[in-house]
Design brief:
It is elongated and about 80 Å long. The strands form 3 sheets. Strands 1-3-4-7-2-8 form a 6-stranded mixed sheet. A two-stranded antiparallel ribbon has the order 5-6. A two-stranded parallel sheet has the order 9-10. The chain starts with a strand and ends in an 11-residue tail after the last helix. It has 330 residues and is of the alpha/beta class. The chain folds into 2 domains: 183 residues, Rossmann fold; 140 residues, Helicase, Ruva Protein, domain 3. Strand 5 and strand 6 form a beta hairpin. Helix 8 packs across helix 10 and helix 12 crosses helix 13.
Length: 330
Amino acid sequence: MGEIYQSKKSGLNKWPLIGQHSSLLDVQKRAYRVANSELPVNISGETGTGKELLARYVHGISHRNRGPFVTVDCGLLSSEMSRSELFGHVRGAFTGASQTRIGLVESAQGGTLFLDEVGELPANLQLQLLRLVQEQEFRRIGEASMRRSNVRLITATHCNLKKMVRKGTFREDLYYRLTVVPLHLPPLRKRMSDLPLLVTHFCQDMKEYNRAFSPEVIQRMSHYAWPGNVRELQHEVARLMVMSEGKIIRVSDLHPRIRGSKAEVDVFDLPFKEARQLANSRFMREYLDRALKRTQGNVTQAAQQCGIGRQYFQLRMSEYGLKSASYKQK
């Protein structure tokens, strides 16, 4: 239900999300600007897009980074005891309260309280949270006096909170308090040009397996919609690195749901900037792939034939997850 993380500047000040897509870079700029303020931040995005990573980044570069980072999964706050979990209680407050307990809000004092899936917060706790945000105070169950809070609040959700407000399932006043600074993480299918960078990054985390992805695999993966987003991609890369038999990962190694996905995202259905980035990415990957095929993986010859420098050619190969060994004749 809750996790307390004492950051102590342990690498959380580094931007954790991999990619060069304009939508992601815009989120990075906005996150950096808001980090040292006390404004509430709401992070929206589909499951697996990296909402908690972004929340930890905002905490890590803020002046609160030596304080705790406390995560609360609001989807688990469904029982009457949830209020006690969040705000604490004093001894004797209810049956079974044999000792005083500090809640997660109080545990986050001096740091950041991260409410994950805040759209799942029960109605009775929404009112309590509103008071915490508005007045910076809370009360333990069974205690007469209010306590002052000193926490930075970051929330996240995969739900559309505006629709929930219209349906009456989420308080409108709380919605406006929590979404002062909205940050939206795009789904992977909307920044498919970043897929080769992500694959390369995840491969580096498992470099002891010494495997490379064939260009055909990267291309087929770029045709898949990735409903689980970056988390699903990370799991698939890990499975391929461990379970594939050869040094080169082939299309046949892909999970059937990905291997059978052939419907490519149509660039003409995307906004101009996204369409241009995706089209450029596809062109560059195909251009490098053909040059390497012509020279059977000889990078020097391929670069010369293309009229570009070898170092630049290698840099682009790395960006798109291309390995010269994949083109060598057996």
